[in-house]
Structures are given as structure tokens and as C-alpha cells.
Design goal:
The protein has 307 residues and is α/β, with parallel strands linked by helices. It has helices spanning 2-5, 13-24, 88-100, 130-147, 162-171, 183-186, 225-233; strands at 67-69, 73-78, 105-109, 152-156, 194-196, 202-204, 207-209, 237-239, 246-251, 257-262, 281-288, 294-302, 305-306.
Length: 307
């Protein structure tokens, strides 16, 4: 009867009998009824795993838990500076905007560093100077610490920072794991700075933040990146990566409203590989409340001013 009524719980009639024996304490010493407090534990009676010869699967990411930012918190989100190909006026405007809003957290949401020198794309060898690139990124990080000495700084790894990892895999695998060649050392991150791997999600209260490259297939559609992000995430979400300012919202059949945003960039708007585009400078301010609610201001930067 148990198996017929609950086939999702028991593997077969013998599995049901094993559970009943366990509950009655008739399965031997150490297998009392407390071993199975609920029937909905699934088809593993008495903690005996099925298919004992089946090995465990390997996981690609050991640290997949989201980095959670609890409120109250005031977060400045900066994405796609692509240093040293950054726009200084846009960055200055964004940092001044953060100061005016009293931010206590700065989220560098991917592609802060360009790593042009180690890109596998065709590039002008005359511009290949890794030392100068790293020095410029280090100066930027030092500026953040000087101007926001009490702020929490979170450095998200974007697809351009991954260029360094790919370069190491192909060109210098012997140096993998050597601290001096890891990103925290190359970028002069302090021990207080938090480096977030490229696959790891960041949650500002109930707002999920990605760089935008994490989805295997590009977030793209004929409307805007925010709508593409909505179609992929189906949740409150924000991303950079596309260098476009956009927002999208939809309401479910039960009246729940879900919104998504994409933020502008802080880099040169006319790079040699794409001089004509629809990019915009921008940043975002997210206020996170203690109950997980949040408020987003997705800002345009133009002429050194924030709108």
C-alpha cells in the first residue's frame, strides 16, 4: 500500500518494507525509528545509498555559493572600465556620485582590467605592454582606497580578467598556483578586498548581480540586454558586460513584478575594434534594506555628469 500510494518515495515494495522495518526497530542494532524521521527523505532507507558502486561526480566549481550582501548597505556598482582603456572623466563622475550617496560598498562588476596584452584576439603588438596595464589598474585600486577608506571593495572577475587565466593555461602552466602570478597579486588587491570568481553570483539583498558573461550563450535579443537577462534569469537581476544602459520589467500571472537592469560602461566608447556602437557610460547605485528589499538607480554618465 505504501509503495502504491507513494511511488515517488520508495524504489519498490521491498524498499517500503525496509523503511517499515527501520521504523519498527526490526532492522538490527543502531537502526531505530529515529533513523528515518520522515517518509519524504526519498529512496534511501536506513541511510543506505543505492548503487554503492556508482562513483561520485566531479564538480567544476567548489565555491558556487552566492556572495550575499545584507542590508542596510549602499552599493556603488561600477562595470567595464577596461583599464587602461578607461574614460577618466566617466570614472571621476561615478566616484563623485558614490561619495554624494555615502556608499559603504563598491562592487567592481567585471572587466575592470582589460588584459589587452594577453588577449588571444588579433591585436596591435605596439600596444602590448602588460606591465603598464597592471600599473594603471593598481593606481585605480589605490584611488578607491584613498577616496573610500571605509568602504568594502568587491572585485568580480569578468571575461577580460579571464584572459589572464587562459594565457596562463596555454603559455605558462608551470606558474599556475604561484601566488605572485595570481590575480590578487597582479592587481595589488589588499587582504580586505574581496575577489569573486567569474562563475560566482553576487546578491545585493534580493537582487542577483552577474557580470553578464556567465551564461554559456550570450544574453542577447532585439530589444535590450536587460530583457535578455530577464529571459535567462527569471529573477531580479543586474549585469554589465554589454556597455548599455537598459531596464526591463514584467508581471507574472499572480501579480508579482520582476525587473532586470544592465549598466553602462566606464571605458573608451570608440575602441579600434568597434568604433561605431551604441555604448553608454554609466554606473548604478543600489540601496539594500535590512529585509532584502532594494532600490536601483541606473545612471547615465555624459559630459562628466551623472544623470
Amino acid at each position: 500500500m505504501a509503495y502504491e500510494k507513494h511511488p515517488e518515495v520508495f524504489t519498490d515494495t521491498e524498499g517500503a518494507r525496509s523503511v517499515i522495518r527501520c521504523i519498527r526497530g526490526a532492522s538490527g542494532a543502531g537502526k531505530a525509528s529515529s533513523a528515518i524521521p520522515e517518509f519524504n527523505r526519498g529512496p534511501q532507507p536506513c541511510n543506505v545509498a543505492p548503487f554503492p558502486k556508482l562513483p561520485e561526480g566531479k564538480r567544476h566549481f567548489d565555491d558556487s555559493a552566492a556572495l550575499k550582501i545584507h542590508g542596510p548597505s549602499r552599493v556603488l556598482v561600477l562595470a567595464d572600465a577596461h583599464i587602461p582603456y578607461h574614460d577618466k572623466n566617466a570614472i571621476v563622475a561615478a566616484l563623485q556620485y558614490g561619495k554624494r550617496n555615502g556608499v559603504d560598498t563598491i562592487l567592481l562588476n567585471g572587466d575592470t582590467a582589460d588584459f589587452f596584452a594577453v588577449s588571444f584576439w588579433e591585436k596591435d603588438p605596439r600596444k602590448r605592454n602588460l606591465a603598464e596595464e597592471l600599473k594603471t589598474v593598481q593606481a585605480f585600486m589605490e584611488t578607491l582606497r584613498d577616496e573610500f577608506p571605509k568602504a568594502r571593495i568587491i572585485f568580480k572577475v569578468g571575461n577580460h580578467e579571464l584572459r589572464w587565466q587562459r594565457f596562463m593555461f596555454v603559455k605558462a602552466p608551470e606558474l599556475l598556483g604561484v601566488p605572485e602570478f595570481e590575480l590578487p597579486s597582479l592587481l595589488s588587491l589588499n587582504s580586505d578586498d574581496e575577489l569573486v570568481d567569474s562563475h560566482r553570483l553576487i546578491q545585493l539583498g534580493h537582487l542577483n548581480v552577474l557580470h553578464g558573461h556567465e551564461y554559456r550563450f550570450a544574453i542577447s535579443n532585439p530589444v535590450n540586454p536587460a530583457r535578455g537577462l530577464f529571459l535567462r534569469s527569471k529573477a531580479y537581476a543586474m549585469c554589465g558586460h554589454f556597455h548599455q544602459i537598459s531596464a526591463h520589467s514584467e508581471k507574472s500571472v499572480d501579480g508579482q513584478k520582476i525587473a532586470t537592469w544592465s549598466t553602462g560602461c566606464l571605458c573608451d566608447l570608440r575602441p579600434d575594434y568597434s568604433p561605431y556602437n551604441n555604448w553608454s557610460h554609466g554606473c548604478a547605485f543600489v540601496e539594500v534594506f535590512s529585509d532584502g528589499r532594494f532600490q536601483v538607480e541606473n545612471k547615465l554618465i555624459s559630459g562628466g555628469k551623472v544623470f
